[in-house]
Amino acid sequence: MRVMHGLARLLFAIELCCLPLSGQTKVAARPPMGWNSWNHFAGHVTEADVRSAADWLVSTGMRDAGYVYVNVDDTWEGKRDARGVLHTNEKFPDMKALGNYIHLKGLKFGIYSSPGAKTCAGYEGSLGHEAQDAKLYAEWGVDYLKYDLCSFQDNMKKAEAEHPDDPNAAKNLMIAAYRKMGEALKATGRPMVYSLCQYGVDQPWKWGPELGANMWRTTDDIDDSYGRMIAIGFSQAGLAKYAGPGHWNDPDMLEIGNGKMTQNEYKTHMSLWVLLAAPLLAGNDLTKMTEADKNILMNKEAIAIDQDALGRQGDRLYQSGDLDVWTKPLSGGRVAVGLFNRSWSMRDVSVDLKEIGFKNGATVRDVWKQTDLGRRSGVVTSRIPTHGVTLLVVSQ
Ligand code: GLA
Hints:
This protein is α/β, with parallel strands linked by helices. The chain has helices at residues 2-22, 38-41, 47-59, 62-65, 95-104, 130-140, 152-162, 169-188, 204-207, 226-233, 263-275, 291-297, 300-306, and strands spanning 33-36, 69-71, 77-80, 86-88, 108-113, 144-148, 193-197, 215-217, 248-250, 280-282, 315-320, 323-329, 335-341, 347-352, 362-366, 371-376, 379-384, 389-395. It has an 8-stranded parallel β-sheet with strand order 9-8-7-6-5-2-1-10. A 6-stranded antiparallel β-sheet has the order 11-12-13-18-15-16, covered by helices on one side. A two-stranded antiparallel ribbon has the order 3-4.
């Protein structure tokens, strides 16, 4: 008994001494990967769904492929008590136990809130309770916070009306709100990924890193349609220079496996997101994954492009009508190339290896076909079906 008591104290001391220390290791050194409840479950998500998602991340091999964050999105929140402490609603009876469950599976725990009084789904936000909420998350063992602007836009409109001469009144108020939570998270001493969700308003890539943000949404919400997905994906041109280890552009979560796009369209989705060094947050029902969905979400070579050690985001090389070529520099002098066909017919899409730094030819690998195309020089052309993609890794 006495030995156990001593051991427990020792473990406690280690926790006290070393948790803040581990905060010095870089958070989100690579684009965060995991699963988020919103795209499939939206407001219906329950603790049981999240536990099940954790189970399935392990049994499908998703965890071992890199998808480690289990993120509870909006609608977990209950009411505040007289001391202002936020409680969960009946769908989430015990957040600390949920966090433990997730951690015991070798996964990480993510949560959601808003700088406004209310979240987007009308639940309790963190306005005026930032430090208190951050402390609560740390107590629950949270590793990731998505902080969603939502009703704070009302506060911004008010600031605009009150300061008609100041064009930055709303923007400054928003930045201050995001800074406040950034500082509150830091003050807990627990490393947490800080994910800004404000739909790209006022170019968060320019001010996010300075607030301690590890990622920021660059656009409004995605949905499970090819039109919306490509509108977001291809609008990311020009943002590459703002991304790097610890701070990433976030074109929103993945829809792969939710059923409304074709396999070629989902391959386009995954290819674009990995070329963009985007956070990869699966948004599907993991209990119902087809082999085709698994092959897309867990293609090791595609994931390696996203997670590459260089930490560079890719960008558009050129566009001609419905055809697009994007490249992403990789470690070891390699380059990932995405050849995209957005048209309604089969088309040839080409890249000139000389244009991407391989004057004397290169070795080319087709990521989706999992085949080596051998030594090539000059122009490489691929015949691509409607809404399809060829994803290549080119090396010396
Ligand atoms: C916003 C966000 C979504 C999701 C919902 C939840 O729309 O952009 O990703 O978090 O709120 O209400």
